[in-house]
Amino acid sequence: MKLALALALLLAAPAHAQDFGATGGRTFSVDLGLGAALKPVYPGAEDAEVAPWIIWRNAGFGEVGDAPAQGFSIAPSFGIVGPRDSDDDDGLTGLNDIDRAYELGLRVRYGMGPFNAYASARRGFDGHEGLTGEVGVKYRTELSDRLALWSGAEVVYGDDEYNDTYFGVTADESAASGLDATAPGGGFNEAAITFRAQYALNDRTALLGEVRYGKLIGDAADSPVVQEEYQPSLRLGVTRRFSFGF
Predict the structure, then answer these.
(1) For the chain, which has fewer Cβ within 10 Å, the N-terminal or C-terminal residue?
(2) DSSP letters for 46-78
(3) What is the mean pLDDT of the chain?
(4) Beta partners for 240?
(5) What CA–CA distance (Å, rounded) separates 135 from 153?
(6) Could you tell me which residues come within 8 angstroms of residue 156 by beta carbon, excluding any fewer than 6 positions away?
C-alpha cells in the first residue's frame, strides 16, 4: 500500500516541481523512482521474492532533455543490499544474520553514440563494510520517440570483505549449519546480461522495466551457501526526472 501511494504521488507531481532553480547555468539531473523487483531471496538463493525497487539512474550534469552524455562523465553511485536472515530459507539455518547494507560511491561512464561503457565502485555500510562495484557496457536502441531499449553485459566485483560477508562460512557457522567452512577472496563474483526498456509518458516521467540474468562465478559460485548459480531478476517501476540548477 505504501509503495502504491508513493508511486501515485510521484506520477501526480506537477512538472514545474522538478525544476529546482535551473536558470540556464549548470544543472544536475537525476531520474528517481520506485518499483517492485522479483529477485533471489539472497545472493545464491534458489527461491525468489518480491521486494521494493528504489531507482536512481542517469545522474549527471546537463540540461533536462539532453541526449545521453557523450565522452567521459562521473556521478554518484548508490546501492542497497537487502538483509539476510537465517529463517529466510532452510539453507541458511545455522548461519549468521546479515543486516541491510547501504552502499555509496562513484560511477564513471564513457558514451560514444549508442554505446555506453561504465565502471562503479561503492563502499558498504551496516550489512557489509567491503568494496563492490560493476564494470560493463550497454547499447541503446531508439524504437520510437517514446520507447528505448538497452542491452548490456557486466561483471560484478567484491573485495574479500564483501565476498566473505555473503559467501563465506566461519568455523562457528560451519559447526552450527553443517556447511563446509570457507573464506572466499576478493574478485569478480557475478557475470550478467541485462535488457531494459523505457517508455516515456511525458518529458519527465517514464515507465521502466528490466530483465537481468546473472551467474555467480569465481569463489562465490563455489560457496556452500549458494543453492543456485544462476540468479535471474525482473524489475518494473516508474521514474521522474529531477533537476537542480546552480
Answers:
(1) N
(2) SSEEEEEEEEEEEEEES-TTPPSPPEEEEEEEE
(3) 87
(4) 32, 205
(5) 9
(6) 132, 133, 134, 188, 189, 190, 191, 192, 214
